[in-house]
Amino acid sequence: MGRKEKPEKSTVMQVDAEETDDITPPVVVVLPGEAVQLPSNVSTVVRLGPGLRQDADGVAVTKAGVLRQTAQGDKVWVEGNQRRYVPQLNESVLGVVTAKLGENYRVDIGGPHPASLGVLAFEGATKRNRPNLEIGSLVFARVSLANKDMEPELDCINPTNGKADGFGEVKGGFMFKCSLGLSRSLLDPSNPFLQHLGNICPFETAVGMNGRVWLRSDKAKQTILIMQALLESETIPYNKARAHIKKFKTELGEK
What region holds the Exosome complex exonuclease Rrp40 N-terminal domain (predicted)? Predict the structure, then answer.
């Protein structure tokens, strides 16, 4: 005779109403050599980013990490927490001017080679009217050329409209370094940490994909606390973001 098994009891989990808006997105971990299925509902050409390579029959993974794609599905890449930054086309970076050579600035972006930034690579720049960057100036720029056989090139112009759109020299504030994984996570539209911090106190930020973050707020103490909150957020899941930021409410000036 067959033995009847008792049905498993269903488990009901109560979720705090304040945390239901913080949903951790699904994570797909890939390893080198695996094949990747590209989105099939995209009408435009799908661009391959870092960590992926076009093979004869499909797309293969070249480094371990988390598979990511844009909301439109027109770009797919592998996000890994590597130590050294390798410049990629159209990535936004924070760099420090180290020298001026003729019509170009040498900029340290944390990569294997310094980048080149032209004096005319700014919105509205001409030979008579162009920015004069000092040694040590901080710039928020876009990688306009990335080739393993050439030094990377930067510009401070949005190629879609010819405007600055936030690119250019960054004045004041404070820049700190973080892991490449954290900087890319902060640029994720579904990341709730910056939004929750902005609800507590106003501040400005620029996040470079080269592991550098710039902050500016009304008080130096607030800037330091925001930096601490962001650095600690690297190991905290998205659904715990609200509880994590609550710890900084009192110190940031809100009761």
Answer: 46-84
